[in-house]
Amino acid sequence: MNDLSHTPQEGRPHAIVIGAGFGGLAAAIRLGARGYRVTVLDKLDQPGGRARIFRQDGFTFDAGPTIVTAPFLFEELFDLCGERMADHVTLQPLTPFYTVRFHDGTELRYSADPEFMRAEIARFNPDDVAGYERLLEESRRCYEIGFVKMVDRSFHSIGRMAGAVPDLLRTRAYRSIYSMVSGYLKDERLRQAFSFHPLFIGGNPMRASSMFGLILHLEKEAGVHYAMGGTNTLALALASLAEGQGGTMRYGAEVAEILTAGGAARGVKLVDGETLFADVVVSNADAAWTHSKLLPPGRRWSEAKLRRAAYSMGLFVWYFGTDRQYEAVPHHTIMMGPRYGPLLKDIFDRRVLAEDFSLYLHRPTATDPSMAPAGHDAFYVLSPVPNLSGNIDWETEAEPYRRKIEAHLEATVLPGLRDRVVTSRLLTPPDFERDYLSYNGAGFSFEPQLTQIAWFRPHNVSEEVANLYLVGAGTHPGAGVPGVIASAKILDELVPDPAAFTGA
Ligand SMILES: Cc1cc2nc3c(=O)[nH]c(=O)nc-3n(C[C@H](O)[C@H](O)[C@H](O)COP(=O)(O)OP(=O)(O)OC[C@H]3O[C@@H](n4cnc5c(N)ncnc54)[C@H](O)[C@@H]3O)c2cc1C
Questions:
Q1: Could you list the mean pLDDT of each consecutive 10-residue stretch along the chain, which spans 504 residues?
Q2: Distance from the CA of 66 to the center of ligand 1, in angstroms?
Q3: Measured from the CA of 25, which atom of ligand 1 is nearest?
Q4: How far apart are CA 197 and CA 202, in angstroms?
Q5: CA-to-CA distance for 214 and 137, rounded, in angstroms?
Q6: Closest residue (by CA) to atom 6 of ligand 1?
Q7: What does the pLDDT read at residue 3?
Q8: CA of 94 to the centre of ligand 1 (A)
Q9: pLDDT at 298
Q10: 331 in helix, strand or coil?
Q11: Which residue's CA is the nearest one to ligand 1's atom 26?
């Protein structure tokens, strides 16, 4: 039996971080900078979590995030280590940010250039130009509250939540983003183009708070970037920053249990039985999984409550390489399907696999030829689908669904695709559950709806166990790379100074 009441003090207090997603990596760096000895444990064989990389047949595929916004959040982490981000990673600003292709074949290119955007909007509906400008102004107000005031502050106290309510009421954050955008724009295609952003973080635009309208302002001010070599290069750079601080990265290390004694976290037990002691434990594992599987049954996050909670949609991702290049296809294309609201209902509420789909098509070789052999293109196409609380048998559905998407791409933007695919790989909701230990196989953990944000989300400091902290998509402020990096910044407010453990 291990005596968990006594942590061996090997010099500096020890912090264990479970998970090397962006949230875990940022937490490791922040704790390292504070003076903790840090060990990061991840069940995968590389850092990045959802931002891992697949290499296959000479192609390199970013598995997850491709759109890098708010680069200043990364820069802070390099600054903490006395390094310059530019010496480690090349961030390439993209313009336009992305192209939205509607079912009728029209395309809207979206960028930060006001003149260009006025002309783009006018092509769809000249009457919407003034509304678009007012929408941007509203987006700025959302940013001032939702980002500046809320994103990197802990919402573990009901008092702080109550303090935010007047701002939330003033900005009518109880409206959905679709409803807010519809108040400014008449053209249905433009309404879709400026309301889909919550899907990037697992939210349904028909009920995600209008506060997520802040993303428009964030993109406009800080740009949309691509990390040369893939987003995973950012994860690799953060892992080496953590190691440079004296931290340890351990891959292939799955945590089975967070060990507690006297109501406080004292370490972790790995699936192979190894026990590691710690003064502080930070879980970057899926927040619902942490409460359901890694901790004893809790009071606030009981299994019953976790089952009742709403989870983000699942993701179907097809990574493929072609033996030709499709020069006309830009780096990021959002391909809207024939239905918007009803499709979202099928995905989030009815949880059935619809006949139609909306897609995001990633072509990194538009910016970075190193992602594919010469003369070839690397792609991934992503379709939001129901998470595992639906009743879809992915064993049988995945390949027909992939073929349907392939046929659609062939008929629209990638002519002759079927005969040009030379490498292929799928990621479906069961893979999210198996690979990332994601509750319900959700792409982005808890769905960000008004009753599941800020105080209503699992707090960044555990409500169940002392010395346990949570970062990542399932915690405040939520999913998306900027969100999870901000969740780690909140630890500076919550985790005591290492001296608290050494008595120094
Ligand atoms: C396909 C896709 C595209 C996306 N596109 C974008 C985008 O363009 N821009 C953007 O900002 N965001 C995007 N996102 C969202 C973004 O990637 C995520 O919200 C974010 O990366 C999640 O980070 P995280 O810190 O929560 O951890 P995760 O990336 O979820 O990593 C958690 C890690 O913990 C490990 N782990 C879990 N349990 C255990 C355990 N018990 N023991 C050990 N290890 C464990 C997991 O294996 C994983 O490696 C995308 C996501 C996906 C899936």
A1: 45 96 98 98 98 98 97 98 97 96 97 95 98 97 92 90 90 94 98 96 96 94 97 98 98 98 97 98 98 92 95 98 98 98 98 98 98 98 97 97 98 98 98 98 96 93 96 97 98 95 75
A2: 12
A3: 25
A4: 9
A5: 10
A6: 65
A7: 42
A8: 23
A9: 83
A10: coil
A11: 472
Protein residue with its CA nearest to atom 50 in ligand 1:
65
First-to-final CA distance of the chain: 30
pLDDT for the residue 502: 82
The pLDDT score that the predictor gives to residue 237 is 98
In the chain, what are the domains? 14-91+228-309+447-502 (3.50.50.60), 131-223 (no CATH), 313-436 (no CATH)
3-state SS class at 360: strand
Q: Following DSSP, what letter does each residue of 254-323 receive, concatenated?
A: -EEEEEEETTEEEEEEETTS-EEE-SEEEE-S-HHHIIIIISS--STT-HHHHHHS-BPPEEEEEEEEES
Specify the ligand 1 atom closest to the Cα of 201: 15
Question: Which residues, 6 or more positions from 98, have their beta carbon under 8 angstroms from its beta carbon?
Answer: 67, 109, 110, 224, 330, 331, 332, 333, 334
Residue ID of nearest Cα to ligand 1 atom 7: 65
Helix/strand/coil for 436: helix
Q: Whose CA is nearest to atom 44 of ligand 1?
A: 42
User: Could you give the 3-state DSSP secondary structure of residue 62?
Assistant: strand
Q: How far apart are CA 261 and CA 413, in angstroms?
A: 58
How far from 185 is each of 118, 161, 198, 218, 338, CA to CA, in Å? 13, 32, 18, 20, 19
Strand 332-335 and strand 98-101: the pairing is parallel
- Ligand 1 atom at shortest distance from the alpha carbon of 41: 43
Expressed in angstroms and rounded, the spacing between residue 64 Cα and the centre of ligand 1 is 8
How many Å lie between the centroid of ligand 1 and the Cα of residue 51?
A: 6
Tokens of 118: 């006025």
Query: CA-based diameter of the chain, in Å?
Result: 73
